[in-house]
């Protein structure tokens, strides 16, 4: 059992399924506490394995570890869940790190056996924002099945020094529709504008550039998940578009005459 393993000197086994940007980012932070196996059938793992000195395994072997961390795109989550389900050991823990929580947790609860615990997490940071360390950064945790959530919270707080927020999947997605939805939408718009280099900038503009720089290299897959797979994002996007139109219509740019009373 994971709780017993954590009390012993021997490290519990943890498999990271998905060696994308975030999956690889997790390795150095978790290897102090776990014996890590890496699995990603869609990527050649030779360089990653050598760089981080971790073993690579197939999906069936990954599923047999004490903890299985799923760092795969949402659109692949169901197929991965179906593939690992027959190989999961009773009492093991499955954790996902998707940026939305309602859909992935529903998928995992549907596809995985009742004998395993399921916890949804959303690290509110990534390779860019966490490049100088993750201590003090925030992570949301959404318990779904089993009694492991308090233990996981203690690990995240005590070992990784993260600021843990316990929240339901619905409330998480409702807030992230604003927090991430607007941030990534505005960033994509600014990047698409392809602005020239600017010398005479304000502090406010510098803050905007910092925000853009932190997420501009996030994948299209992540952007799609944040915008399209959050059940609450559509209303936020519609509100944003309406508010933008209202602001622009409040001032007639072509005539220079405002609509203010």
From TrEMBL:
PANTHER family (UniProt xref): PREPHENATE DEHYDROGENASE, PREPHENATE DEHYDROGENASE [NADP(+)]
InterPro entries: 6-PGluconate_DH-like_C_sf, NAD(P)-bd_dom_sf, PDH_N, Preph/Arog_dehydrog, Prephen_DH
GO BP of this protein: tyrosine biosynthetic process
Domain of life: Bacteria
Domain Prephenate/arogenate dehydrogenase residues, every copy: 12-261
Species this protein is from: Microvirga aerilata
The keyword Endoplasmic reticulum belongs to this UniProt entry's keyword annotation: no
Keywords attached to this entry: Oxidoreductase
Protein name as catalogued: Prephenate dehydrogenase
């Amino acid at each position: 059992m994971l709780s017993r393993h954590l009390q012993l000197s021997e490290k519990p086994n943890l498999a990271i399924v998905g060696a994308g940007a975030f999956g690889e980012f997790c390795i150095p932070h978790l290897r102090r506490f776990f014996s890590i196996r890496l699995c990603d059938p869609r990527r050649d793992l030779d360089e990653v394995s050598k760089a981080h000195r971790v073993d690579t395994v197939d999906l069936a072997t990954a599923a047999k570890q004490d903890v299985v961390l799923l760092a795969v795109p949402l659109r692949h989550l169901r197929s991965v869940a179906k593939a690992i389900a027959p190989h999961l050991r009773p009492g093991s823990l499955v954790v996902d790190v998707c940026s939305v929580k309602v859909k992935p947790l529903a998928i995992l609860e549907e596809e995985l056996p009742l004998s395993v615990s399921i916890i949804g997490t959303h690290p509110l940071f990534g390779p860019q924002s966490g490049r100088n360390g993750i201590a003090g950064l925030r992570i949301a945790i959404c318990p779904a099945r089993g009694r492991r959530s308090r233990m996981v919270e203690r690990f995240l707080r005590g070992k990784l020094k993260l600021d843990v927020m316990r929240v339901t999947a619905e409330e998480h997605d409702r807030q992230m529709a604003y927090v991430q939805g607007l941030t990534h939408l505005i960033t994509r718009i600014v990047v698409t504008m392809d602005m020239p280099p600017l010398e005479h900038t304000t502090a406010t503009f510098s803050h905007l550039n910092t925000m853009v720089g932190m997420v501009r290299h996030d994948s299209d897959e992540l952007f799609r998940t944040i915008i399209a797979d959050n059940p609450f994002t559509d209303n936020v996007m519609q509100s944003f578009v309406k508010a933008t139109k209202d602001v622009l219509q409040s001032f007639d740019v072509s005539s220079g005459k405002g609509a203010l009373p």
